[in-house]
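In practice, a research group might receive sequence data for several interacting partners and want a quick structural hypothesis before committing to experiments. The following worked case mirrors that situation: the sequences arrive first, and a predicted assembly follows.
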Amino acid sequence: QKEVEQDPGPLSVPEGAIVSLNCTYSNSAFQYFMWYRQYSRKGPELLMYTYSSGNKEDGRFTAQVDKSSKYISLFIRDSQPSDSATYLCAIRKGNMLTFGGGTRLMVKP
Amino acid sequence: GAGVSQSPRYKVAKRGQDVALRCDPISGHVSLFWYQQALGQGPEFLTYFQNEAQLDKSGLPSDRFFAERPEGSVSTLKIQRTQQEDSAVYLCASSFSGVGTEAFFGQGTRLTVV
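A structural hypothesis for the assembly, expressed as tokens:
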């Protein structure tokens, strides 16, 4: 079993929709959780990170961690075509990041 | 430069050939990471440097893979006797501190072994 699991998609939504992206992880000791966005043929860029449980909001993006169920989520409000990308969740283990496989999101105008 | 720079962007190697991939981290960044990303997968950790010291190389898949950062700045990932399964995008990331949480990635080098 992988340490971080993520549905690969693709997920296709109309412009303006609320998007929910999710990951599960295996080790309850993990404390730092990240979401990265990766456009085609580009490197990942950090969107948000959260420590332990709870919510964190940044503009149209909200990251949520539920440690009791080992579930992390990223919500995108008022989705735009420019949000079309692969979204990667990651957890920090020591000095390295362990990534999920990524979910490809397509927002159609 | 403003970001992490990797070269070359694309590399085609014949099976058995040696390759060297270069990473220029953001100036002043202490930590440097190498990741391997297969098509349709998330990045997988290869190795980590703090300044010139290679503190973790647990992710290197075989002894054909070797990384160095001799002066604590530029890093090179070398792959000897390349094989088809080495085909992937190799990503370099750097961060100011050793934490690695806010790591900035380069655009990657796409290696194709034919």
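Before designing any experiment, note the following. The radius of gyration of chain B is 13 Å. The mean pLDDT of chain B is 94.
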